Amino acid sequence: MNGVILTCNAGSSNTKLAAFDARTLARTRQATTFDTATTLAWLHGADNQEVVAIGHRVVHGGLDFTQPVIITPGVQEKLRSYIPLAPLHQPAALACIEAAQERYPAVPHIACFDTAFHHTMREDERRFALPRALHDQGILRYGFHGLSYQHVADVLPGVMGDAARGRIVVAHLGGGASACALHDLKSVASTMGFSTLDGLMMGTRCGAIDPGVLLYLLGEGRMSLPELTRILYHESGLRGVSGISGDMRALLADSSPAAQEAVALYGAMAAKAIAALLPALGGIDGLVFTGGIGEHAATVRERITQLLRWAGDFPVHVIPADEEMVLARACKNHLTTPKERPHHEQRCNNLSTG
To answer: Kind of pairing, strands 109-113 and 286-290?
Structure first.
């Protein structure tokens, strides 16, 4: 199979683009952009070879999408309805999809969902202690960073052998951060729940917080909903605690007490959240770090590991994140199994009338 597969990985602060040989999945080009216009320019000059498919990372797939699907107008309409659930990521993904479709209208565009990896979680791991009617409306734990966890699950047997199918915790630490409990290389629990705010402290997001704080801030006109949303998504986490930066690299290089406090809290919150996953596994056989901070901040990894050593003498591994490879592989699977196309297309088109 000749040609090029392109991938668009829209994150909360940038978009990672890559091109792969469609036959070998060898990466031929990659870039990081910070706005849709640059993204479009890169797509225009992506390669001299024929583009045969484009894979898109979409953070939220709700309950409708548990596997990659061809993007149709019906699918896009459904994805727009999830914007309130992932306001940092969903609009960026939709903008990339529209830009890529404009440039390559005739090739298949495949959406791969961060939430899809977690559809294997048990019902008790998905449910909040809220009225059943709210759960039935979709107020439940979805889990995120699924493409990153899928990549770890794909390569971990090559790192740990048969032990990879045991009780593994993967910590994706980057601008966004979460941890996932894996057993038999499948998700059984996650620190992120209904939204990308939950769980670990992040670059600019707060992580787990007493909901009473939110009720207090919203009560009696203390703060408007847009103000609170801005604080929780953009002004909290490392940036909020340090008052300096949401970038871990800057804080590790800063000797001020505020920077050190932010780094220490980051490690403590991560360790607590990871520890809370252990009951779902019954223990831990391995800890894996991935993501920008997980891969490059050794002192952060060591602090988190130290705080978890009470749980046993488990191995620790670092695996570089590669969400783009997961996207490319999904595209190749689509291209090499054409018999599945009508099924996906029919399923996607049904969403526009459902």
So the answer is: unpaired
Contact at 8 Å (CB) between 57 and 46? no
Q: What is the pLDDT of residue 338?
A: 57
80 pLDDT above the threshold of 80: yes
114 is catalytic: yes
Mean pLDDT of the residues in the chain: 91
Percentage with pLDDT > 90 across the chain = 81
For residues 290-319, average pLDDT: 98
Quick check: helix, strand or coil at residue 258? helix
Q: Angle 211-218/225-234 helices, nearest 10 degrees?
A: 140
What is the CA angle 20-26-27, rounded to 5? 55
Dump pLDDT digits (tens) for 202-217: 999 999 999 999 999 9
pLDDT of residue 256: 98
pLDDT band of 222, cuts 50, 70, 90: very high
DSSP-assigned states of every residue in 152-204: HHHHHHHHHGGGGGSEEEEEEESSSEEEEEEETTEEEEES--SSTTSSS--SS
From the candidates 114, 198, 285, 322, give the one annotated as an active-site residue: 114
**Helical spans, DSSP H, in 104-194:** 123-126, 132-136, 146-160
DSSP code of 230?
Answer: H
**Which of 120, 139, 172 is closest to 11 using CA atoms?**
172
Calpha distance 354→350 (Å, rounded): 6
The rounded distance, in Å, linking the Cα atoms of 152 and 290 is 8
Q: Which residues contact residue 3 at a Cβ distance below 8 angstroms, ignoring those fewer than 6 apart?
A: 22, 49, 50, 51, 52
Please give the Cα distance from 177 to 187 (Å, whole number): 16
The DSSP 8-state label assigned to residue 188 in this structure reads: E
Is residue 65 within 8 Å of residue 90, measured between CB atoms?
no
CA distance linking residue 296 with residue 290, whole number of Å? 9
CB 82 within 8 A of CB 55: no
Q: What is the pTM of this model?
A: 0.91
More reliable by pLDDT, 351 or 168 = 168
Q: What is the 3-state secondary structure (H, E, C) of 92-125?
A: HHHHHHHHHHHHCCCCCEEEEECCHHHHHCCHHH
